[in-house]
Amino acid sequence: MTPTPATLQPLLDDAVIVLQAPTQVWSDDTGRIGTAPIHGIYHGDLRHIRAVDLSIDGTELESIGYSSPTPQRANFTDVLRGIDDDSADPQVRLDRERTATAGRFAERVRLSTHLDRPVPASLAVRLRPDFAEMQAVKSGSPSTADWHWDGHVLRSATASFTLTAAAATVTSDVDGLVVRWDVEVPPRGTVEVDWAVDLHDSSMVVTAAQPSTTAVPSATTDPRLAQWTQRATADLAALRLALPEHAEDAFYAAGAPWFFTLFGRDSIWAARLALAADPAMAGSTLRVLARLQGKATNVATAEAPGKILHELRSGALSLPKEGVHLPPLYYGTVDATPLWVCLLADAREAGMPLSEVRELLPALNSALEWMIVHGDASGSGFIDYVDETGHGLANQGWKDSGDSIQWRDGRLAEGPIALSEVQAYAHEAAVRGAALLDELGEPGGERLRNWADSLRARFRAAFWISTDEGHYPAVALDAQGAPVDSLTSNIGHLIGTGLLDPDEERACATLLAAPTLSSGYGIRTLSTQATGYWPLSYHGGSVWTHDTAIAIHGMLKAGLVDEARHIASQLLDAAEGFNYRVPELHAGDTRISGGNPVPYPAACRPQAWAAAAAVVCARALQI
Q1: Which helix (H) or strand (E) holds 548?
Q2: What are the phi and psi torsion angles at 451 (to 5°)?
Q3: CA 409, CA 532: separation in Å to the nearest integer?
Q4: How far apart are CA 425 and CA 381, in angstroms?
Q5: Measured distance CA(246)–CA(205) in Å, rounded
Q6: What distance in Å separates the CA atoms of residue 444 and residue 55, rounded to the nearest whole number?
């Protein structure tokens, strides 16, 4: 049976969002909320209001444009020809200023006329409550919840919203609430009405963070780069969250709409890539993750001593189509733990006080111990993974979709799987972790350096392969220890980690810039020569902004400045094509002259590590 649109994941590419985590509002470009499946007013992992319909008796609202000057605000303009005169120029207009702050949605509606007579009007706003869980929205599943309106607060289970609408009459029916104002606009005058909802959910495990210190990177003479960095840093500020018990320590929510919560890998990479713009975020992210670091072995949650979590939610996450059911606190990732160590080393180099590093010493030791003792679950000699529950994530690196690790002929690799980039992160973490221990006057550094040297030798023997595309590290080793021979963007994550020698790094950089991986708007996740390549495949041919930025980050560390600038210029061109809010990923189609990047229609935006890519690209392009 062909699935109906109601059972498919919503598309996002043409929707308009205003946000301040943990609140977000999605509409179409006319300001109407409810004309597409993603639309609604969300707080945390719950959509409180499915639709908002604004109407004026006797006329149609005809949209003539919108703008979104900040992540938190959008302005929409309509003309009202049904209550206008018959002249060519519109004489009556409606403007809406929409704002989202943490826990609040507000809208100011302004009715203006240039006519020399009064204009009576009856404005109505209809709100349709929904209280759908985010996972139900994502899967396209219908969701309804019982609610009760007491004349001021509308409640459903643990969630509620309070309506404020001065001088309005409010009525309720089985579909929701109707807010109405009867007004008269004076000749050549204006009338404004305001309404707002304050959103609450006692089940939330995240909260708004304290005000941001994110700064725009140093000035540039390139106006495109300036626009991108300004938009990106504003988005990063809008994505700040904290845990309720420690609101002083912020982290970046992974992205809108699905991931307004804490993800280990995502928050770490976003903090690393944005370090030059917001160095304080590195320290706070490290502390947040350290508080939730694994303490025991638990197969159901994939927890292990020292392990850094994958994600945190207020309830279990069920994705029936993918066969995935994750507990609220889930540790099914093998890259977040070494990346936590790398972020700590980055933070120290950026000026984190040694006293703050020392406070994290227990977490550092635990992370390093997991890495060199527990990370090799199968005895392969490498950090690897396999889902032991049957309903967790089949792949536990950054490419975590079920079909992301595949051979050149399209076959899926069987686990346990050892990813190439995870070995690179681990090598970097061991070397830099040893240096931190030395600086703190703690033992263990020599053991870590010896382990890193051994890992480096084993990697060179096991991962390097030759195909008709060249000589490069395989994306992974499979259950039999065989190198999975696809040429992928993962090789970009190896550069600058110390796992490769300089000639090997340059060879990888050359392959990343070649036509099979480089789309012209960034690096494809999978080579066009692979059987499984498809430009709209989530991890099998698309271009992920942060993935390309990680390669640029590594190239800069490795001294491959020209190569970094070349790839960064591609991402800048992509940013221009997306009006400087680069999505999570876009299609891997080859760039054509005069064209624009093709959207991946379900890509999140803004996405923290995609926004943070602007900071790295600014560094590369200003060297």
Answers
A1: helix 545-557
A2: -65, -45
A3: 7
A4: 15
A5: 11
A6: 69
Domain 22-201 listed as CATH 2.70.98.40:
yes
Residue that is written with structure tokens 């917001």 in the block: 278
What fold characterizes domain 207-621?
Glycosyltransferase (1.50.10)
Q: Which of 44-53, 311-320, 491-500 is predicted with the least confidence, judged by mean pLDDT? A: 311-320
**The residue to which tokens 């025991």 are assigned:** 296
The DSSP secondary-structure symbol of 247 reads E
**Where do you find CATH 1.50.10.10 in the chain?**
207-621
Are 145 and 137 contacting, i.e. CB atoms less than 8 angstroms apart? no
Of the CA atoms within 13 Å of residue 50, those in its CB half-sphere come to 17
pLDDT at 1 over 50: no
Question: Is the Cα dihedral 546, 550, 552, 557 positive or negative?
Answer: positive
pLDDT tens sequence across 537-577 = 999 999 999 999 999 999 999 999 999 999 999 999 999 99
Quick check: 560 and 509 in contact, CB under 8 A?
A: yes
Q: How confident is the model at residue 320 (pLDDT cuts 50, 70, 90)?
A: confident
Q: Concatenate the DSSP letters of all residues of 14-79 into one string.
A: T-EEEEETTEEEEE-TTS-BSSSTT-EEEETTEEEEEEEEEEETTB--EEEEEEEEETTEEEEEEE
Q: What is the mean pLDDT of the chain?
A: 95
User: Before 416, cis peptide (omega within 30)?
Assistant: yes
Token look-up 């203006």 returns 112
Q: How far apart are the first and last CA of the chain?
A: 55
Chain-centroid distance of CA 337 in Å reads: 19
Helix, strand, or coil (residue 621): helix
The encoded tokens of residue 201 equal 């959910």
φ, ψ (nearest 5 deg) of residue 477:
-105, 140
> Please, are residues 158 and 203 in contact by the beta-carbon 8 Å criterion?
yes
> In the predicted model, is pLDDT for residue 216 greater than 70?
no
Cα 241 to Cα 236, 249, 309, 313: the distances in Å are 10, 8, 16, 13
Helices (H), 82-133: none
Give whole-number Cα distances, 453 to 423, 424, 472, 587, in Å: 12, 12, 20, 38
Helix/strand/coil for 274: coil
What secondary structure letter does DSSP report for 374?
I
Mind listing the pLDDT tens digit for each residue in 402-435?
A: 999 999 999 999 999 999 999 999 999 999 999 9
Please state the rounded mean pLDDT for residues 176-205.
97
Predicted confidence (pLDDT) at residue 3 exceeds the cutoff of 60: no
A 10 A CB-CB count for 84 gives 18
Confidence at 211, pLDDT banded by 50, 70, 90: confident
Averaged pLDDT for residues 298-318: 96
Domain with CATH 2.70.98.40 in the chain: 22-201
| Residue 219: predicted pLDDT | 59
